[in-house]
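Consider the following assembly input.
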Amino acid sequence: MWKMNMTQEMLEILIGKYLDGEIMPSEQQILQKELDSDPHAKELLEQLQALNERSCEAVTTEIIGRGKEAEEIFEQAWQRQAANPLRRVLKMDGRLRFAAGLAAGLAIGLLLHFVLPFVSTTQSPDVPTNMLAQNTDNQMDAEQFTYPQTPTDPTGNSQRNVDWYSFTDKQGNQWLVEGLRENTVRPAVYYGDL
Amino acid sequence: MATERKQNESALVCAAQRRDKEALQRLLTRNWPWLKGLVYSILGDAGEVDDVLQDICVRVIAKIDSLREPERFRPWLAILAKRQALRHRQRKARRPGPLSEELAGLQPDEKAQQLFEKIEQKEQCRQIMQAVQSLPEKYRQVFMLAYAGDLTYANIAEILDIPVTTVQIRLVRARRMIYDRVSGKKEVRCVENEYDTGNA
């Protein structure tokens, strides 16, 4: 007859299941055969059975049977909770915090929406000259505007002569470019699909 | 049977969420033994278990209405209890300890207990509890739930959110380590590495 080669751990699992009342009938048969055939298995069962009983006693006396009753601890906890009405108020804190966060986010979003474009148009850094110069594929429109020269500043500041060009980029957007007479070029106004 | 228990528990949770004190109390007291065992498995000190249990009760009272799935009360409670016990353990670790372990060991009642303790059974219980305390935490938790809570493997698996087979193996290994320690065969610390090779 074929005999299963049972490892120590497999045997201990079966014994453990037996002790915990979790063993299946088929497993119990296997365990029974092992116990009948192997005196070591029987000895192990006795050892673990004794340990199991002692463990139950130990946990019951040292842990479960020690300390206050559950009802008493619960009552004290209930009193503690009732004595702190602020907790109930703070329970709304989560929702309030969410609403406040939402409002703050909305306010910041609106602020950025209205302020950012203004900042970017008024304080935009000068575009390096080569940025436009590199874009050689863009053709300058034939039309060239020359605006009248600005009058001399009475405070004595230097006078700038500018030319205005328009060109259409590859995407078909039209640009108005301010060309300074000092051989620098900077973008001025975009009036594409406006 | 288990389904009936769950339905019953879910009904109690629903009542507790409507601030029904009695339902809340029943909910906690029926889970008390394993809860106590779980807290002990983390603290390793039976004298401090009651304080943590009271904190857990306070948390449960305050947070019960945040539990969305009433049928998952046990795992929820286990997580809450573990968190509270770990917090307590951390707080305790930050406090300055006693002057020496010898002095700490000479508490009057313990000393008297040692002096007058002649019953072999009592001594064995003490040895077992010492061995339980020296187990790695994951084995200790399963062991305490099995013995303190008188729970099935499936219940333990549900509470600890681990497979049933893992529960079986951890329990077997925990017993083996305790047996070796009590019988003086091996030191648990050495055995821990030997047993700890797998996921279980």
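Residues 93-122 of chain A form the longest helix (30 residues). Ask yourself how this observation constrains the way the partners meet.
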